[in-house]
Design goal:
With 570 residues, the protein is an all-alpha fold. It is built from 27 helices and two strands. Helix 1 (16-29) packs across helix 2 (42-82) and helix 5 packs across helix 7. The chain is elongated, with a radius of gyration of 37 Å.
Amino acid sequence: MSHPATDPDKIIGTTPDNALRNADRADARADGPVLAADGTPLKRSLARALRAQKLRALALIAPLLIFVLVSFIAPIGDMLFRSVENQIVKDTLPRTVVALRDYDAASTELPRDEVFEAAYYDIFYAAERKIHTRLGSRLNYEMSGASSLFRKSGRGLDDVGELYQDQFEALNEGWDEAGPWVEIMADPEWVTEQAAWDAAPEGRMPRFELREGIAEILPRTSEAYETFARFTQVEEGDSPLEEEPWSAVHTALYQDLSATDLSGYSGPRADMLQAADALVESDGFETVAFRDAFAEVDEDWVEPEIWQTIKMYSPAYTSGYFLNSIDMQKTADGPALRDADERIYGLLFWRTLFMSLVITFSCILLGYPIAYLLSNLPSGKANLLMILVLLPFWTSLLVRTSAWKVMLQQQGVINDVLVWLGMVSDDGRLVMINNQFGTIVAMTHILLPFMILPMFSVMSTIPVSYTRAAKSLGATNWTAFWRVYFPQSVPGIGAGSILVFILSIGYYITPEIVGGTSGIFISNRIAYHISSSLNWGLAAALGSILLVVVLILYWAYDRIVGIDNVKLGG
């Protein structure tokens, strides 16, 4: 049911909306439209004024709206995207991903030879761009050892191309020079433009173009040389006219020559190509299979696990991060639970929720009497005590947390006092640090002001006459408090509880310092993956789940208590 104070249709008085309605009624009663003072129809004039009013209001809130979008909405959207984004595999190994489409990741067989060939070129090009280690780091999250495997392969696969490069160079030294390759592969017009640019570099370098028809004669070589030439131009800023090609280009040349008859070729450097073709067909020409080359680099390449991992994580988007964040993993047979000794995130989520609730209730128990006292004292004394409540805000969070570390340790102040009082023996000092107890104590102290302030704000608005009236009607002090005063203070408890719970569920500094291994929160693992392991996808997935949990708890709180009952005073 709408409220007459907020529903535009029920507001009595002069408003732009009511003025438009009155103009409609006037038009209906009159034979023609009612005119404003300037001669325009009244309805149009009022609509223009209402539009201008709304634009002014929008201009006033625009800076805050932009700030919220940039600093809050956009980071959340980026986090949600990172939790499923997996384009690095597809972008780094495009040929391998295509070749693996018909590979059954659930099988124990190795993929066909074409997959090894595609992986050779993909990894070689990635190594030249120095992005193969990034891919290895990504796959290392799913398969231990993938990072070192790709790092080693980036160096080891050079031997394949060098095997063919050395044999072609022994036949004709021109195969290791830039000039002959340019004559065979490059478009003559591009060569002229590039030579002019080399003589007087100005503006952008002309984009490399293949010679017409060469891609049909030498398809693999054309692709490899084009990749080399454009990389040389864009990434290194050098001219392909002066740079000898990669060893992978020689590998591609061998493959084309072994599959093509060039006896009828009459283009540039025909003699070199035909001589190389004859060399490839000779019995003494040394070759190596791509599968054998990968096995020589590392035996892991001839194990199905690495190819299964690449296959499973080849799509641009993946559920793997979310599965890992709930102690599951992506397998060839579908999602599966991890081993019992590897399930840590479910425990951390439950620990975070439990300890956040304990901290919230601790703050309620300690903060309610303080807020009650402050709201019932004379203003002078209340202001003095409020300074003490706000005093922790004047001290660094790190200093306060470190102080609790000093206080709670076994040789700390609290244990020393207990030993001095004879409550514990010197060899039986209490362990209050690097556990859940230390985290709860330190965080209760840090978050207590956030509970006291909302409760005090609400309690200060409760008229004292209510409890006096209850007592005058025969109620005891407890009945007057419990039946009259406490229900009116519940909105302050609700506001403080939401504030403290949401703050505590995302805390990581205090648990990191005083929590040890048993007192850390899920936020500590998120911070670890962001700053140390650099597994931003998993961190984003954990953060997304934490966000969803908070929203669900917020919804449940609204259904049970009612968010309209939460007040900060007034």
